[in-house]
């Protein structure tokens, strides 16, 4: 992947994820009930699998982390970049990387050039207490 962060802490995770659904497509509703949309559920399962593979059996991270998100959108459309964060943070918890997303002390979200299909390069670094 070759992503370099400006921090000096040891890297806890490095992974490539498919482009996530935005928060606008993350939820579905039936009556008063809200639930993950089928698209969001499929993305979360794929992302969780990739995150578990990248963690390579090391278990959950227990300390606070800095998250670096390098977003390569699927096209040049104008979009709110922060709309992808919910899906990414949920996948980190669902995939067993973090116990809870309160462990995220820093988020660095960087937009890169568009690529067909889009992707997200994710780097997590543990933060010293």
TrEMBL record:
Keywords: DNA damage, DNA recombination, DNA repair, Endonuclease, Hydrolase, Magnesium, Metal-binding, Nuclease
Pfam families, sorted: RusA
A single BP term in Gene Ontology: DNA recombination
EC number(s) per entry: 3.1.21.10
Catalytic activity: Endonucleolytic cleavage at a junction such as a reciprocal single-stranded crossover between two homologous DNA duplexes (Holliday junction)
GO molecular function terms noted in the UniProt entry: crossover junction DNA endonuclease activity; magnesium ion binding
UniProt-listed InterPro entries: Endonuclease_RusA (IPR016281), Endonuclease_RusA-like (IPR008822), RusA-like_sf (IPR036614)
Domain of life from the UniProt record: Bacteria
Cofactor needs: Mg(2+)
Subunit structure: Homodimer.
Stated family: Belongs to the RusA family.
Protein's recorded name: Crossover junction endodeoxyribonuclease RusA
Organism of this sequence: Thermus tengchongensis
Lineage summary: Bacteria, Thermotogati, Deinococcota, Deinococci, Thermales
């Amino acid at each position: 992947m070759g992503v370099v962060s400006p921090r000096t802490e040891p890297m806890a995770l490095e992974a490539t994820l498919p482009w996530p659904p935005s928060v606008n497509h993350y939820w579905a509703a039936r009556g008063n009930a809200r639930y993950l949309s089928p698209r969001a559920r499929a993305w979360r399962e794929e992302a969780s699998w990739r995150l578990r593979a990248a963690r390579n059996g090391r278990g959950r991270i227990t300390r606070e982390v800095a998250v670096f998100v390098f977003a390569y959108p699927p096209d040049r459309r104008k979009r709110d970049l922060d709309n992808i964060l919910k899906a990414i943070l949920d996948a980190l918890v669902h995939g067993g990387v973090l116990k809870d997303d309160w462990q995220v002390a820093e988020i660095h979200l960087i937009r890169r050039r568009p690529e067909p299909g889009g992707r997200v390069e994710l780097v997590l670094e543990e933060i010293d207490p």
